[in-house]
Design brief:
Blueprint lengths: L4 H10 L14 E6 L4 E5 L12 H11 L7 E7 L10 H10 L5 E6 L3 E6 H4 L12
Parallel strand pairs: 3-4
Antiparallel strand pairs: 1-2, 1-3, 4-5
Helix pairs in contact: 2-3
The structure holds tetrahydrodeoxyuridine.
The site of tetrahydrodeoxyuridine has 13 residues, from helix 2.
Length: about 140
């Protein structure tokens, strides 16, 4: 399966226009690739009750899962900010990514004009809380 890194970055950039970030004005886009080549995108969606805001990473993953896809179907993930410095997924998103993506899934963190840092889900959150931990 070919990872469409460039296309993922482009789609994550395109979806920035849909970011509902009326409070922070901090736009984030994300995109993931399904193994059949489909790309699913999402943005951050804020709320007047600030704590209810949803990050772009989670919007994207929840959309994919709502469409019926599961972690085994997802071959790459990308998060993008248009700023000049690297922005990596927040702690809450790392926890969600660690359950809804495979540990070795590549994660592209895109920023600036065309900069991309590549990592994996496992690298982002090595000691994650797992669903297996609930089996006491
Ligand atoms: N945000 C994301 O969408 N992803 C991140 O990884 C960090 C933060 C959003 C949440 C909020 O809408 C805005 O950025 C400022 O925190």
């Amino acid at each position: 399966m070919k990872i469409k890194e460039k296309e993922l970055v482009e789609k994550a950039k395109e979806v920035l226009k849909n970011s509902y970030s009326v409070y922070s004005h901090f736009k984030v886009g994300a995109a993931l690739q399904i193994k059949d080549g489909t790309i699913i995108t999402g943005t951050n969606i804020e709320n007047a009750s600030f704590g209810l805001s949803n990050c772009a990473e989670r919007s994207t993953l929840f959309t994919a899962y709502s469409m019926g896809y599961r972690k085994e179907d997802i071959v790459a993930f990308c998060v993008l900010t248009p700023l000049d410095h690297l922005v990596s997924p927040c702690g809450a998103c790392r926890q969600v990514m660690s359950e809804l993506l495979l540990p070795e899934t590549p994660v592209f963190m895109a920023y600036g004009k065309d900069k991309v840092v590549k990592t994996t889900v496992q690298e982002l959150l090595p000691y994650t809380f797992r669903k297996e931990d609930l089996n006491v």
